[in-house]
Structures are given as structure tokens and as C-alpha cells.
Amino acid sequence: MVIVETSAWVEYFRGGVPDVVEKVDRCLEQDLVGIGDLVYCEVMQGIRSSRERGEVSSLLLSLPRFDMVGFSIAEKSASNYRLLRSKGVTVRKTIDVLIGTFCAEHGLQLVHHDSDFDLMAKHIGLDIL
Fold first, then answer.
1. Is 2-124 assigned to CATH 3.40.30.10?
2. pTM for the full model?
3. Nearest C-alpha neighbor of 83 from the set 54, 37, 47, 119
């Protein structure tokens, strides 16, 4: 199973970076993609058009769904954040540490277009596709 992170969905829907779009396409075609609640929230809050919101929501909610945050992931994410800081890695958004930690803890691969995930991957066991 693969989680497509918000940055990759943005590239996919906008027809942006070809490598990212191709990864998302390939994973969707193989029915490998799941959607996390945090990713869903981030994607949906960025869509202005009600028509587009409906289309995107229908696609995303047709995927297997994951509740990404609970107390155990929150605790592990806080620990990962401290670990990353001790290694000189500063992740810009807490939500990225939550998403990365969730994927690492559940053995899910991540497709993204955000350098913060590359920086944290080796330190927290995150598998980047």
C-alpha cells in the first residue's frame, strides 16, 4: 500500500512534475493507493472550486482510508521530531512528521514532492517510492 502525500496530489492534479505524476498514475492503476485523513484535509482545504472539490473528494474517498493520528502516532511523532532535531534535521510542518511517522510505523510507502520527507526518511525508517 502507498500513501500519496499532499504535495504529490497537487502535482498530479495540476499535471506538474512528470516523475511525480507518473508515480501517482502507476500506483492508482495498480490499486495501491490509500488516503490518510491528514492528507485528505490538506488536499481539500486547497481547492477553491466547488465542482473541483466534488470531483477530487469522490476520487480520494474511493480509496482505502486511514485514520493517521491517534495518541500512539502523536507520541511517536513527537519522539521522531526530537530525533530529527538531534540529527540537525528541521521539518517545517508538524503534519509532515505525523504523516511520515504513520507511514513508517505501518510499513506504507510514501509518494511525495516535498524535501522534508527525504530528509526524515533514513532517520525514521520511512520508505519513499
1. no
2. 0.94
3. 119
